[in-house]
Amino acid sequence: MKRPLKENVSELLEIIGNHLRKYRIMAIVFLGIISLLDIGFSIAWFISDDIVANEKEVAYYILQGIVLGVSLIYIFLMILDKKEKISNMKLAVAYHIYGFLLMAWATLVYMLDLTLGEPSIIYLMIGTIIAGLFVVEPIFFTFFSVLSLISILIYFSFNPNEFFDGTLIWENVFNLVAYAFVIVLLALRNYRVTIRENRAYKKLEEMSYIDELTGLYNERSYISEIESINNRIDDGEDVKFAVILMDLNNLKATNDKYGHRFGCSLVVRCGQTIPGLFPTSKCFHVGGDEFIIIVYGDDYDNFEERLKNFDEKMIYSIVQFDGVDLIFSVARGYSIRKENEHYKDVLQIADSEMYIHKKYVKEKYNLAKR
């Protein structure tokens, strides 16, 4: 089954932990009930005068008491989680360990039942279902389940009489088929959960890196991109890029005369136009009327042509918004990275060029007087 999540294990655990955290109250209540009942029954069995001690029965109840008693530890863990003392990653790891312990417990109890002549699969089913609810990642759950099934088959290979007993063979076959069916259903359920959680995670991640107003990358994404570029340069890579720094001319005058809604329309128009002019580059709206393009790929190889087309569409035009003619004018400065330059060096040159260009545009189109 193909994992629907990214290969990064820490990110996978982060997503799963975030999902499991939603159900921590239900888990605390559920584990509390089964732990208290199990420990209570185990104590009652040990103090009962009617018990005829048997090594297998003793192992059965000790195993039951100890393994499910671990539930109390996880209740404490989830109480800490409620107070946000546990990270998503640690929570996910803890849940999966607990799921594995339940599967191991259920498998051993089932094999002990067989030695006692009780081929009931109820404990195995309950343990697997509980583990399936706690273990969200389908690959992990399927691995635990297959390991459990292999253990049971190995047990049968060493104790064939218990499986091929004429009175129990059909019940044993039915139990194993039912068990395999439950495994498949739970694995599919967990697969759908991870798909849903991964989509939600990606959407949230995209929202955190996208500017809501323009649809371009935001300042957070811009900072991340700068760090990536500088790291590549520090590693000795010859990173080929150019930077275009721009802002809108006379935006304050538009806001003062017509209102911020009209000014925002110019910002939005700029954000909608830039990606089409530099399709292989990354475009950022870093706040207010400031935009930055980091030019890569085919845009970089055809930079002069792209810049010429940019100037034709962006330097000066009249656009309409709600029946009002607005001046759409952008000043820009650019710089192409030279050898040994870091990002800040390229940006400084682009910034200086932008102010020179802004002065030129305002004088040419008489914007200073408008």
Brief summary of the model shown:
By secondary structure, the chain is an alpha+beta fold. Helix content is 68%, strand content 10%.
Low-confidence stretches: 1-7
Q: What characterizes the major β-sheet?
A: 4 strands, antiparallel
Order of helices and strands: HHHHHHHHHEHHEEHHEEEH
Number of strands: 6
Q: Helix fraction?
A: 55-70%
The coarse silhouette is elongated
Rg of Cα set: 33 Å
Terminal CA distance: 64 Å
Topology, element by element:
Layout: H1 9-21, H2 24-47, H3 55-82, H4 88-115, H5 122-134, H6 138-158, H7 160-163, H8 169-209, H9 219-234, E1 242-248, H10 251-258, H11 260-277, E2 282-287, E3 290-295, H12 297-301, H13 303-314, E4 317-321, E5 324-328, E6 330-336, H14 343-364
Antiparallel strand pairs: 1-3, 1-6, 2-3, 4-5
Helix pairs in contact: 1-4, 2-3, 3-4, 4-5, 4-6, 5-8, 6-8, 10-11, 11-13
